[in-house]
Predict the 3D structure of the following.
Amino acid sequence: MRPNGDTLADLARALRGTPLEASQVPRFREIVRLLHRLPPGRERDGLLAVAYLRLYQLLGQEEDYLKGYSYARTAKLEPVRLLGERLGEGER
């Protein structure tokens, strides 16, 4: 279940390769945990946003949405921010 490697590139690949399925929640949580260990930055924050927003899509927990949207705004990556806004409007 552990992503292969702990670099930003490894975690980005793991996030991209993880299907949006309920059985993958532990993998998304592990990716989030590993991303938090890396230094803050636009790419890391963008990946955290995607991971938290994916968790929100799967679990519907507002805390995941708020964290994801916050990281999306911090990262200033338009596609990620738009995903957060779409989810905030009730699209899953």
